[in-house]
Specification:
413 residues; alpha/beta; FAD/NAD(P)-binding domain; 5-stranded parallel β-sheet; globular
Length: 413
């Protein structure tokens, strides 16, 4: 009996378990998923909790519900992988052997990595919304906040869902407008990048949206520390950004056990071949979803598109055949822009977001690089799609490799 061990029961791990259970002979293969708890959180929904659009219990379901019969779920904290011995050791000293290993433990915000972020102001005047706990605490703060200077801040890239900080800013603008207090709120967007939209074509189409909504931009800002007493962000070049309420996206990092196992880079992401997702230096370890170092967005769409190709590659690989389904970094992201509208971007490793229609050329129903109500509803209905189709490995009407059909190619300087 061969053993496939999947570390992580989130989006990527659950999809992989469902797809591979259908493809691997049950008489020959055991599949085990390891995660530290039973709660599966719909992470894109965290964005909406601070504004009362979703409640926390709208976003959590039991992991076991989405794993197929014939897949074992082991609950426990991972201490380390011992790749030379093909085994995983849990914190309680249980040992799980494997023939093939999939690392799918994602990425997490690490407020401990920025001096001054944690402390007496944490979850009082300093918040994050990338965890359900953080989003819930921020909802409580916003419910009673009377206004002032709100700073939305990104520590560094890469982060989960890189458009989420912008989405939060747009939703905050709409939230305060609807509460008739927008004139009492100064919104500032602080980024380590050279602009809110860094790709030339996206910047051309969307670059003025912050100014239109009265949001100030502070770019190229690499935070050195947070002075919680003075309520100020301080950069390495000694610029200062004061705040009354800071909504920060802490440094995102992969799981600590990856570092302890000698499998990760400086941020605990597993270096992989970006087209096959096979871990560099190992013939029986793959990293899926946010856990890998592939140079594209850490987003659910990347996990979805890559795993559609990965399952065929995995089957070929275990039978000694070449892996020929090469992933191109395809990602698409709805960008909620508030006031019942949204935007959509579609791109891959080599092609930046372009205008046009998606997924049907000339029809859509979604518009690329343009606000529309259809894009908003695409974003809001995705929660149903996630629970009922995506996780369970059902076929989706989107191609895993990026298509240029329906896109308007533009030339820029």
């Amino acid at each position: 009996m061969k053993r496939l061990l999947i570390l992580g029961g989130g989006t990527a791990g659950t999809m992989a378990a469902n797809r591979l259970r259908k493809r691997l002979d049950r008489a020959e293969w055991e599949i085990t998923v390891v995660d530290q708890n039973e709660a599966h959180v719909y992470q894109p929904g965290n964005l909406f909790v601070p504004f009362g659009i979703y409640e926390p219990n709208d976003l959590v379901k039991p992991r076991r519900r989405f794993l197929p019969e014939g897949v074992e779920l082991v609950l426990g904290e991972i201490d380390r992988v011992e790749p030379e011995d093909n085994r995983v050791v849990l914190a309680d000293e249980r040992v799980l052997a494997y023939d093939y290993l999939i690392i799918a433990t994602g990425t997490s915000p690490r407020p401990d990595q920025t001096p001054g972020m944690l402390g007496p102001q944490w979850r009082k005047s300093i918040h994050e919304f990338y965890t359900l706990e953080g989003a819930t605490a921020l909802a409580d703060t916003l419910a009673d906040w009377q206004g002032g200077r709100m700073v939305v801040h990104i520590v560094d890239m890469p982060i989960k869902c890189p458009v989420a900080p912008l989405e939060f800013t747009f939703l905050a603008d709409a939230f305060f407008t609807e509460r008739a207090m927008r004139d009492r709120v100064e919104l500032v967007f602080v980024t380590p990048l050279d602009g809110a939209f860094t790709k030339p074509i996206a910047s051309k189409h969307l670059g003025g949206i912050l100014e239109e909504r009265g949001v100030s931009l502070e770019s190229d800002f690499m935070v050195e520390r947070i002075d919680a007493d003075a309520k100020t962000l301080v950069s390495f070049d000694e610029r200062e950004v004061p705040f009354d309420l800071l909504v920060t996206i802490p440094l995102n990092m992969g799981a600590d056990y990856v570092a302890r196992s000698g499998l990760g880079d400086d941020l605990n992401y597993v270096p992989v071949d970006k087209q096959t997702l096979l871990a560099k230096g190992y013939d029986n370890i793959f990293a899926l979803g946010d856990a890998s170092d592939i140079p594209t967005s850490k987003a659910g769409s990347v996990a979805h598109f890559s795993i559609e190709l990965f399952e065929d590659n995995f089957i070929s690989h275990i039978h000694g055949r070449p892996m020929t389904k090469l992933f191109d970094g395809h990602a698409n992201c709805f960008i909620e822009s508030g006031h019942g509208k949204g935007m959509l971007i579609d791109f891959n490793y080599d092609t930046e977001p372009l205008p046009g229609k998606y997924p049907l050329p000339g029809f859509g129903p979604f518009s690329l690089l343009r606000e529309s109500e259809a894009n908003h509803w695409g974003k809001m209905t995705f929660r149903w799609v996630y629970w009922n189709l995506l996780l369970t490995g059902k076929e989706m009407p989107f191609e895993p490799l990026m298509s240029m059909a329906g896109k308007e190619v533009e030339v820029h300087a």
